[in-house]
Structures are given as structure tokens and as C-alpha cells.
Amino acid sequence: xxxxxxxxxxxxxxxxxxxxxxxxxxxxxxxxxxxxxxxxxxxxxxxxxxxxxxxxxxxxxxxxxxxxxxxxxxxxxxxxxxxxxxxxxxxxxxxxxxxxxxxxxxxxxxxxxxxxxxxxxxxxxxxxxxxxxxxxxxxxxxxxxxxxxxxxxxxxxxxxxxxxxxxxxxxxxxxxxxxxxxxxx
Length: 185
Hints:
Elements: E1 27-31, H1 34-45, E2 54-58, H2 65-74, E3 81-86, H3 94-107, E4 110-115, H4 122-127, H5 132-144, H6 147-160
Parallel strand pairs: 1-2, 1-3, 3-4
Helix pairs in contact: 1-6, 2-3, 5-6
Keywords: Ligase
EC number: 6.6.1.2
Protein name: Cobaltochelatase subunit CobN
């Protein structure tokens, strides 16, 4: 008889500790997607009036528990709002999600944890500190894509955190497909 040996490793076990060296900010966005982070950066730049301070971080850099602890102490501890776009659900970043959730609940931080795959995720919703109506709106904005929608998501979450931000205007949805006409440009 042969016994099959199976070993399971989490994402946090595969990396060396890393400190991104970011200072605290009023708002923080975490995602595994650089295009997500780029959209939030562009959306933040396009916000009218005074903007809150913002930090963006790819979650790949926060795989190791020591990296998570350092980031919580150095960056997230000063946040008033945190948005996490989590690909793969709770099981893909368990230590980080539990740590951020604990910090948000202890400090009264507006935390929105959103799925990236277009499906509802009750575990991510339960990890959030904002209500279901706001989570639904933020998910819809993030799923729309683009800088305008990302900026509106930042404004919505910032307002929920008590930051003095104007209400976001209507956001046009990006088309699901398109074409280019060389004569029209």
C-alpha cells in the first residue's frame, strides 16, 4: 500500500519578509492587481478639491506575516479608510485579512474588503466594517473599472470614514467591448 503525501502551503509561507517603507495615510488601497492600483492612483489624482492622503500597495509584497505586522504598525495604523480588493477570497491572504480586520475593528477604521471575481463573498463582507449597501456600491464601482469609478469608490469610502470629500458624481460604465476605426481615430 502506498500513502499519498500531500502538503499544503499558504501564500504567506513562500516569501521573505519585506517592508514597503510606506508612511501612514488617511486612505489605503490593497490589491493583488497592479492595474487596480493604477486605476485608484489615477482616480485619486482626478478627485476635485483637497484630496486625502493615499497609499497603494500590492498584496504580493505583504505575503509574509512579518511584512503584514510591519505594514499594520507603520502604515495602516494611521488610516481612516482601507479598501482591499482580494483575489482568491479569504483563504488566499488569511493572516493579513485577520490582522487588518482586527485593527479596523479596534480603531474604528472604515474597512471594505471586496471580491475581484464578480461573485459575492460572504466571508469578505463579514470582514468589512462598513455596511452592506456601501459594500455593494463599492463593488459595483470597482467592477466598472477605470479611473473615474476608482475615484468615486475612494470618495464613497472616504465619506463613510468621515473625511471631508465631495459626493462623487455619476460614473459612466466602460464598455465591455469596442473597436477602433482608423478613419475616425
